[in-house]
Amino acid sequence: MTPLRRIAFEILGAVERGGFASDLLAERTRGLDSRDAGLATQLVFGVLRRRAQLDHLIALVAGRPPEKMDPSVRRALHLGAFQLRYLSKIPAHAAVAESVELVKQAGKAQAAGFANAVLRRLPELPEHWPSDPVRYSMPEWLWERWLAHFGGAAASVMAAAALEEPEVYHRGDRVMDIGSQAIVPLLELEPGQQFLDLCAAPGNKTLQALETEVRAVACDSSFNRLKHFLAPCPLIQLDASNPLPFRPVFDRILVDAPCTGTGTLARNPEIRWRLTPEEIVRQAGRQKRILGNALAVLRPGGRLVYSTCSMEPEENKQVVNQVAGSRVQRVVERLPGREPGDGFFAAVIE
């Protein structure tokens, strides 16, 4: 058993229990050489992105739905099936043998023969998938939402982009998505302005704002995230869904609000499998409170930018329309696949 496959298997299990793939990979692959770390990353993200497709292929030969299988057996089959059908440089015998070994090491030796048979009989990739949710490896309810809100052409482009490994963008010497970089310029910052970054961690956008020589204050609800904050400015730990301890003195405010993150499915593929309609409603309620509190500390004549990396209207247009109304001057929407980078929504409010 190669360590990288064992690590990928364990990370996928941790993701099923609520972990985040990017954080887990950064932690668990430190001891691997760059090639093995890269393959472990490819395995984890590939399985998460294409889970519905893998389940469809497995179900055709397994005789039972994958969701009815033991989770560790299903996880090992996902890893084997992804290598067999999406990684042409992996020898088939290695993909099968090591996936069967993962089943044994998980304490499911009685299922080893079953796993071996499924992987050896796995169908080739079909010319046509049975449905769009399988084709795009998305929950049916989320696919239907995107169809309703964006139309078939845009929804297809967005969903197809979410299946691919995202390009890595940089700003200076740090990684920063190109969509994220497009938010701060909407503030039209000028030197000396009082600037509040309200949901600021880890600080990429604050650093970008400081390039304009503003006087910045950064806030976030997470103490742990603030401990590793990137920007050299005053930091305050607070929950912005509660009233803020400031007077209306800020010339510019950025509210990069906590959200469901559905514009980042290529980079955070586990989101699609753990998100629920109820979570969208919960986030929207919190976002309205945060935006209302932020507007209360914006000075007359000031400018606020509200942004999310969500594609859901409840978190975007509905929030700014209900809270800011006619004060909304401009709306910008970046769709994955239509524009480069992650999907983002931003509204300029004055």
Secondary structure layout:
Elements: H1 3-16, H2 21-28, H3 34-49, H4 51-62, H5 71-86, H6 92-105, H7 112-120, H8 132-135, H9 140-161, E1 170-171, E2 174-175, H10 178-181, E3 194-197, H11 204-210, E4 215-220, H12 223-227, E5 235-237, E6 250-256, H13 271-274, H14 277-295, E7 298-308, H15 317-323, E8 328-334, E9 344-349
Parallel strand pairs: 3-4, 3-6, 4-5, 6-7
Antiparallel strand pairs: 1-2, 7-9, 8-9
In short, what is this structure?
The chain contains 15 helices and 9 strands. The protein is of the alpha/beta class.
How is this structure best described in words?
46% of the residues lie in helices and 14% in strands. It is elongated. It starts with a helix and ends with a strand. The protein folds into 2 domains: 3-125, NusB-like (N-utilizing Substance Protein B Homolog, Chain A), CATH 1.10.940.10; 170-349, Rossmann fold (3-Layer(aba) Sandwich). It has helices at 3-16, 21-28, 34-49, 51-62, 71-86, 92-105, 112-120, 132-135, 140-161, 178-181, 204-210, 223-227, 271-274, 277-295, 317-323, and strands at residues 170-171, 174-175, 194-197, 215-220, 235-237, 250-256, 298-308, 328-334, 344-349. The protein has 350 residues and is an alpha/beta fold. α1 (3-16) packs antiparallel against α2 (21-28), α3 packs across α5 (71-86) and α6 (92-105) packs antiparallel against α7. The strands form 2 sheets. It has a 7-stranded mixed β-sheet with strand order 5-4-3-6-7-9-8, sandwiched between helices. It has a two-stranded antiparallel ribbon with strand order 1-2. The chain is built from 15 helices and 9 strands.
